[in-house]
Amino acid sequence: MLPDATETRPIEGVGAFVLRLRGLILKELRQTFRDKRMIGLLMIAPMIQLLVLGHAVNLDVDHVPTLLADEDRTAESRAYLDGLTAGDAFRRVGVVDSAQVALSEVSAGRVPLAVVVPRGFAADLGAQRPTRVQVLVDGGDSNRAIVAQNAVATYTLRRSQALIAARGLPAGAALAPVRIETRVFYNPSMNSRIYFVPGVAATLLLVVTLVVTAMGLAREKESGTLEQILVTPLGGATLFLGKTLPYALIGLIDLGLVLGVGTWVFSVPLRGPLGVVFFAGGLYLMTLLGVGLLIGALARTQQQALVAAFFLIMPAILLSGFATPVENMPTWLEPVTRLNPVRPFVEVMRGVLLRGAGARDLAPQLVTLAGMGLVVFSGAAAVLRRRLG
Amino acid sequence: MPSEPETVVDVRGLTRRFGAFVAVNDVSFSVTRGEIFGYLGANGAGKSTTIRMLCGLLAPTDGRATVAGADIAREPGRVKRSIGYMSQKFSLYADLTVAENLDFYASAYALSGRLRAARMDEALELAGLADRRDALTRELPGGLRQRLALASALLHRPPVLFLDEPTAGVDPLARRAFWRVIRELARGGTTLFVTTHHLDEAELCHRVGMMVDGRLVALDTPAGLKATHVPGTMLSVGTGAGGEAGTRAVMAALAGMPGVHGWQPFGLRVHVRVDPELAGPGRLAARLAERGVATADVEATEAGLEDVFLALVRR
């Protein structure tokens, strides 16, 4: 019954490699999904996050509470103010009759926006003199302030053009010297969710894969099982592939789920070839998994791995152009953002989904992703071999 | 060479430095086929570093070693195919079942087909877990985990088995059963290299090497070690109700007494190594009484490897 030492049969070659790799992948998947909560964390949590974040991250100006100050109290001034609050952009919270009151309300922060029609508004219009309205904005929320201000200006311009046309006058240069005409491409309703969903997807992939691979390797180190693997003939290449392939697969499945939620719930268009998204996703995952294994190889404990992963994840997200445009960052940060794999991947996602761009249009981003993937992946393999082999 | 024992592990001048610290310092020894070689020493004496080098996990700074004919520095892959390794952590996956653990290690050793199935059945049998193959490893008691770890390390039937503190955290009954298996393996021709700090386990080894501060300071059979390093007759002195104070009084009285080689406390008794003329009945008690120390009883005892170890450390 006991083994005797006479029989040793080393089985080598490609067959052994496949056998070992399959054994390792099976083990990784069994461990990952042994705990049912992990299925939730890896598969369902990203979708829930996308649902929550997709709704939360919204830069559209909608129903801004607006105080109206009508000093003129004429049919013309009322028509102007009624028109302003007829749409969805502004919500009338009250009408006062003095600019003074409006100013104090905005200064006190009780209302974010006030529009004042001064005395003489109707008289000026009747005499065909230029007239003006005043917009008081709380700049605390600078984004909303700018958008609201622009919305008032656009409305006013449209209204003055309508008045000119109604009086049969030509749209003269003196009356409307500058005509701003904006055409919005790809996202005509300026729905910022459509813009954000690809970014949220990229960052979710980052969090899931980086943390899982880094923690997985660190856990094997902590429990001594890594040492046990290393005394078997299972080589470094097998170990590396076995530790990345299962998570690449999970990552690609997550990408598919997130894209599904994005199109179904947020009506993100799928204008371009999906193959390009998944190809870019594969390259992106190579970088993430490589970094994850590097962290796992260098960390002594799971806690260290977790902290290190978060130190990388935070700047990677913030410097990706996911929420704030990279163009708005200081120039010295520009090279740093170029080292960030999230940036080209977000660009590919937006390009394919929103613009219908193909591989040719996105070649620079794809080349960047491929380069990063190869460098990080082979670097991680080398470090793993040196540190553990 | 039918009578010449076959050398399976051969170590020459093996050295490992970590910066300025010399963990293993110029160690040489060899182990023959079917031998149980015990490797003894305090924590940090260099036991684990030696074993890690011999398993191909750590490159030596200097010196060389072969395991089952393969050079550990040049052919670590060949070394890994012919060894089994089990550490004190019983490195199994706690969140996998018994069968899943064996399945993984069978793959790692590239066992396939009927050979794989047969070896896995044998391993379950050896671990005594044939009826609990679907139990989570985490839920097994320490003794069973240890046997499963051993069975996993033997799946590929390695000619050499390295055991690093294999009985840490295991109850005495399981330890005894474990050593029965070890001895049976050795009879079957497996060469065993065992580190331990249980000195009673070292007594079960064919030969024992003692490590102190990275050096191999002694290497012999347990009996040979005792004869060389703790000569003389061993007496055990009890002080009855004297307690710790009584023990201290005995040791104070022994200082400078002619015919006494050495002593050390052993629980509430004192073990004293003496010349034969002091070993007769009542003699040591009488001499202690002369110095004003009352003893309850003095009986002959056997020197243990612990006495050897303490003598070596003190030297």
Characterization of this structure:
The complex is a heterodimer of chains A (389) and B (315). Chain A has helices at 14-34, 36-56, 75-84, 99-107, 121-126, 142-166, 192-223, 225-230, 236-266, 274-298, 302-318, 334-338, 342-355, 363-388; strands spanning 64-70, 90-96, 113-117, 134-137. Chain A is mainly alpha-helical. Chain A folds into two domains: 19-57 and 191-388, no CATH class; 64-166, abc type-2 transporter like fold (3-Layer(aba) Sandwich). In chain A, strands 2-1-3-4 form a four-stranded mixed beta sheet, with helices on both faces. In chain A, helix 3 links the parallel strand 1 (64-70) and strand 2. In chain A, helix 1 (14-34) packs across helix 9, helix 9 (236-266) packs across helix 10 (274-298) and helix 13 runs antiparallel to helix 14. The radius of gyration of chain A is 30 Å and the shape is elongated. Mean pLDDT of chain A is 83; it is low at 1-8 and 173-182. By secondary structure, chain B is of the alpha/beta class. Chain B contains twelve helices and 14 strands. Chain B has a six-stranded mixed beta sheet with strand order 6-7-8-3-9-10, with helices on both faces. A four-stranded antiparallel beta sheet of chain B has the order 2-1-4-5. A four-stranded antiparallel beta sheet of chain B has the order 12-13-11-14. In chain B, helix 3 (98-108) packs parallel to helix 5 and helix 8 (222-229) crosses helix 12 (305-314). The longest helix of chain B has 16 residues, at 172-187. The model of chain B has no long low-confidence stretch (mean pLDDT 89). Chain A binds chain B through residues 1-12, 15-16, 19-20, 22-24, 26-27, 30-31, 34-35, 223-225, 227-235, and chain B through 33, 55-57, 77, 80-83, 85, 87, 89, 91-96, 100, 103-112, 115, 122, 125-126, 154, 156-159, 181, 184-185, 188-191.
Key phrases:
heterodimer; A: 389 residues; mainly alpha; abc type-2 transporter like fold; 2 domains; four-stranded mixed sheet; 4 strands; 6% strand; elongated; disordered N terminus; B: 315 residues; alpha/beta; Rossmann fold; Alpha-Beta Plaits; six-stranded mixed sheet; four-stranded antiparallel sheet; 12 helices
